[in-house]
């Protein structure tokens, strides 16, 4: 393959991954403005963030296999095209429900696009230093996207409009679609004959959506009967999902992974971590900075820099060095023990100067988060058989996204019932302490049937 096509493949992958990761956080700082402009309640506003996570998580396991069936470049063009169209609809929406539906459509499209971006890298770059450099660039884009989303959210909201946080995807998305179509014509784009369990994906998404909805409205007195209906629907859908997965030959999660105690407990810990770091922390800090402290959207976006910077520095520089000498489980526990005091700090102190109320606690939280996230990802993917590597990675990301949505719903309800966001930070603290309990019960070794790799090989 020519060097021009390799470069095109790299930047197509990176730009597509950028908008996928960016849109997890790009509406965070804009939420107060969205809420005021569209007349949304606090619960409805939280669904602008949760809808993306639920759509993303629900079809991620199925999306990871789509590239093998329809072809990588073709799938990337279709999925990013759909993502761009959903962004346009969301950016022009005048009703809250339209925006929430558009965000869900973005999430579904992202579930197909994100795995395809990595697959495109591996098909356009040969193994060895060439591919390693490409993956390093792709990883850097993925890590920086979330923090960039918060800053962009604040700047666009204040200087243009909250709508720009979604409409900015249009030029990027159109460029990615054109590049993907060029790659499809110029490079090989093989299609396979695999099967995808869309029924299982739909049942899982519907079940988690009902459960999340029940949690998010539990504190609303005007909806006293709806939580019971939503919980009942979620329970019924989960039962249907279990029955369907027992009968289908094309399971969402390979049976070897579903029976692996390390994988199960590790992904429970991942979901609990996601309940804090994926959406909730950013969501409640956004409202605290803008509604309580009176910061402008730009100031609030820049207020996330200490958290983002400390997490990135620790994750990219300190954590890889520590992992050469420390076991992943000990680093996860250390990360939790560092993060928890920062969350307690936010719970106790909710007024005062920026350095004391935001800067100091978020730097502490960023250090803890930077220490725990990579070891946790390593723990749930190391030693997995090569044929299950993609499924294990998809399961980890699914747990993270579902955990983020469920965590935000529970934290929003806790804040609504108590009348203060302090309850939300307490809930995040409890979720992280539960991570220690989950990690402590993970077995030290897998069964002999698993080929165990070193953490260094996995990372």
Walk me through the topology:
Layout (H helix, E strand, L loop, with lengths): L2 H23 L5 H8 L3 H29 L1 H21 L3 H29 L4 H31 L4 H4 L1 H18 L11 H19 L9 H22 L7 H4 L2 H17 L2 H13 L4 H7 L1 H18 L5 H21 L5 H28 L7 H30 L3 H19 L14 H4 L1
Helix pairs in contact: 1-5, 1-6, 1-8, 2-3, 3-4, 3-5, 3-9, 3-18, 4-5, 4-8, 6-14, 6-15, 9-10, 9-18, 12-17, 12-18, 12-19, 15-17, 16-17, 16-19, 18-19
Describe the structure.
It is a single chain. The protein is 80% helix and 0% strand. With 459 residues, the protein is mainly alpha-helical. The chain has three domains: 1-194, MFS general substrate transporter like domains (Growth Hormone, Chain: A, Up-down Bundle), CATH 1.20.1250.20; 197-249; 260-459, Growth Hormone, Chain: A. Helix 3 (42-70) runs parallel beside helix 5 (96-124), helix 3 (42-70) runs antiparallel to helix 18 and helix 4 packs antiparallel against helix 8. The chain starts with a helix and ends with a helix. The model is unreliable at 447-459 (pLDDT under 50). This is MFS transporter.
């Amino acid at each position: 393959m020519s060097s021009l096509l390799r470069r095109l493949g790299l930047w197509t992958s990176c730009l597509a991954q950028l908008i996928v990761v960016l849109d997890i956080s790009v509406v965070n700082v804009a939420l107060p403005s969205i809420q005021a402009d569209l007349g949304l309640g606090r619960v409805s506003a939280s669904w602008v963030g949760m809808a993306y996570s639920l759509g993303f998580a629900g079809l991620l396991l199925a999306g990871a296999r789509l590239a093998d069936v329809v072809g990588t470049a073709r799938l990337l063009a279709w999925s990013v095209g759909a993502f761009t169209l959903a962004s346009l609809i969301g950016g022009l929406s005048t009703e809250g429900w339209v925006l929430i539906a558009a965000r869900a459509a973005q999430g579904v499209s992202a579930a197909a696009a994100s795995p395809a971006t990595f697959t495109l890298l591996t098909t356009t770059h040969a193994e060895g230093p060439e591919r390693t450099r490409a993956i390093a660039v792709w990883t850097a884009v993925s890590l920086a996207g979330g923090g960039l989303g918060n800053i962009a959210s604040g700047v666009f909201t204040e200087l243009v409009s909250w709508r720009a946080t979604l409409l900015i995807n249009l030029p990027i998305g159109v460029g990615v679609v054109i590049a993907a179509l060029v790659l499809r014509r110029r490079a090989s784009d093989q299609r396979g004959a695999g099967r995808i369990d869309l029924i299982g994906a739909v049942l899982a998404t519907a079940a988690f959506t009902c459960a999340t909805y029940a949690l998010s409205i539990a504190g609303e007195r005007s909806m006293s009967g709806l939580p019971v209906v939503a919980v009942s629907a979620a329970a019924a859908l989960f039962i249907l999902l279990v029955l369907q997965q027992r009968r289908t030959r094309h399971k969402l999660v390979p049976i070897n992974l579903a029976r692996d105690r390390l994988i199960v407990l590790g992904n429970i810990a991942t979901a609990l971590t996601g309940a804090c770091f994926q959406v909730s922390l950013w969501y409640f800090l956004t409202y605290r900075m803008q509604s309580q402290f009176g910061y402008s959207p730009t100031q609030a976006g820049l207020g996330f820099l200490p958290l983002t910077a400390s997490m990135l520095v620790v994750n990219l520089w300190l954590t890889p060095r520590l992992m050469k000498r420390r076991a992943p489980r000990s680093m996860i526990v250390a990360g939790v023990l560092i993060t928890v005091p920062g969350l307690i700090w936010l719970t106790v102190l909710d007024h005062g100067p920026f350095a004391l109320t935001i800067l100091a606690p978020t730097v502490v939280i960023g250090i803890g988060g930077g220490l725990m996230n990579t070891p946790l990802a390593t723990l749930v993917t190391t030693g997995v058989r090569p044929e299950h590597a993609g499924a294990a990675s998809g399961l980890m990301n699914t747990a993270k996204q579902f955990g983020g949505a469920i965590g935000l719903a529970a934290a929003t309800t806790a804040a609504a019932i108590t009348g203060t966001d302090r309850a939300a930070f307490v809930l995040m603290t409890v979720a992280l302490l539960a991570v220690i309990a989950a990690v402590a019960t993970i077995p030290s070794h897998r069964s002999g049937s698993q080929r165990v790799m070193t953490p260094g090989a996995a990372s």
